[in-house]
Amino acid sequence: MTPRVPRLSSLWAIMKKPQAAVGRRCRKQASSLAGREKHALSSNQAPDARAGTIPEFPAGLAKGQEKVVLQAPVSPYHLFRDTAEITVFRESLLSWYDQEKRDLPWRRQAEGEVDLDRRAYAVWVSEVMLQQTQVATVINYYTRWMQKWPTLQDLASASLEEVNQLWAGLGYYSRGRRLQEGARKVVEELGGHVPHTAETLQRLLPGVGRYTAGAIASIAFGQATGVVDGNVVRVLCRVRAIGADPSSTLVSQQLWSLAQQLVDPARPGDFNQAAMELGATVCTPQRPLCSQCPVQSLCRARQKVEREQLLASQSLLGRLDVEECAPNIGQCQLCAPPTEPWDQTLGVANFPRKVSRRPPREECSAICVLEQPRALGGAQVLLVQRPNSGLLAGLWEFPSVTVEPSGQCQRKALLQELQSWAGPLPATRLQHLGQVTEHGGVRDDGFCGHIRRPISALWPSPQVVHTFSHIKLTYQVYGLALERQTPVTTQSGARWLTREEFHTAAVSTAMKKVFRMYEGQQPGTCKRSKRSQVPISASRKKPSPGQ
């Protein structure tokens, strides 16, 4: 069905209406932007890992690269060139935010805190937790964290084991470790006072990148500094019709420059939160709610949609007198490349350009749940601790070995690993178990409890697949239940836990998947509860490493 085209008279009026901040045609050369670009280059800092945050301009940029950036043609069409337009944007966005902002615990905490250091700490914790993690997931973690460690001093005195335990399931476990490292540095080296500016926050605190530093400085201390995360990228790319790759050096710096230009000096923290809120709730990746957008009158993406609708109607003859990007020299570096034409079905969602991501590398591991069902005090399973650096640093897991996907010799290698922790074991009792599939469910290699039905017909292969941000890890899952034999763990870094203790320990989501499979294949436990049915991806929209 052909989409309904709005009344041509009203759209024509929109198209011909003068823009306060723009001329009718934008043909200034990019050399006029040299001053603006040099200012942007002066703030080059290390990248932040927040969800969707675009790669920031590298601090050690070579002179030749800088020259290329400065000379690249950029049309003023993509800029805010008038203070009146900027004022309208600020006022409209803040007025909307005051009425529509979500009631979130970290906002209440910051707004109600008089002590600046405690306010900064409240913002800091929330911003770190929100990296690559949805708001709904963070709320409970944040509440429990602030109840357990309400001040920087409390966090600094905690153990890494406690931090990992509370963080378990949130993903990106290095975030919690670095947050504690930062708290200790503030307490031990900075007199208990959090740095007040974005520059000093990023320079002095481990794990604090450009975005996080700007968020803390603006929200907690009122510094007029802009921020750019994934939501802000989307808003700015649409408002200024920026169709080039947002992860590129040029576009990244232009977005940071726009954010700095727009931030309200009187309410910088509220403005930055408002921009992110707009991207999260209205200017969404798919099906944006343009009719509810407070800055739609300034949105070039929306104007382009209306223009394309007019052209598609074929009801108007001649050339439309509508502003569009038209640099004098070459292809505009902020426009989409000619190889990516406008998609009428996407509308404003043509912006920003989708960034192609490298697929995660694939690895395979054989892992075993070693259990003493008749241990004193209840059944116990063996966990070993991972190294203090690298993936899932310091977390506890079931004994495992890296193997080839072919599976050759994995059983022998796994048994040797188990015996290195627990001593001699009955090799004949080492059993290969089931799989978590994309449809949910657990497979057993034989029959399930008293139900005499082959499960293999439903779930085809014995493995658990868990995807981190950069690794797709396939676990070949084994189980070994001991009878009246109590092995002695002779090495440090291993311990026996009851099932109840396991569920509260500092273990990753991947280990919980493995244990759910193990529980599901035990006699009398194959009841296909919701708890045992875990999708193969079983994650948020964006996978979080460390789960």
Short précis:
This protein has 547 residues and is an alpha+beta fold. It is built from 19 helices and 8 strands. α2 runs antiparallel to α3 and α11 packs across α12.
Descriptive account of the structure:
The protein has 19 helices and 8 strands. The radius of gyration is 28 Å and the shape is globular. It has helices at 8-16, 34-41, 63-71, 83-100, 105-111, 116-129, 135-148, 152-156, 160-167, 174-189, 198-204, 210-221, 230-239, 249-262, 268-281, 300-313, 410-422, 499-504, 509-521, and strands at 361-372, 380-385, 396-397, 400-403, 431-432, 464-467, 471-481, 494-498. A hairpin with a 3-residue loop joins strand 6 (464-467) and strand 7. Strands 1, 2, 3, 4, 5, 6, 7 and 8 form an 8-stranded mixed β-sheet that branches. The model is unreliable at 1-71, 435-461 and 524-547 (pLDDT under 50). The longest helix is centred in the N-terminal third of the chain and has 18 residues, at 83-100. The protein is α+β, with helices and mostly antiparallel strands.
Distance between the termini: 44 Å
| Fraction in beta strands | 5-15%
- Counted beta strands: 8
Q: What structural class results from the helix and strand content?
A: alpha+beta
- Quick check: average pLDDT? 77
Q: Count the helices. How many? A: 19
Q: Could you spell the SSE succession in H and E letters?
A: HHHHHHHHHHHHHHHHEEEEHEEEEHH
For the biggest sheet, the summary is: 8 strands, mixed
What is Rg?
Answer: 28 Å
The shape, in one word, is: globular
Low confidence ranges: 1-71, 435-461, 524-547
Helix content: 25-40%
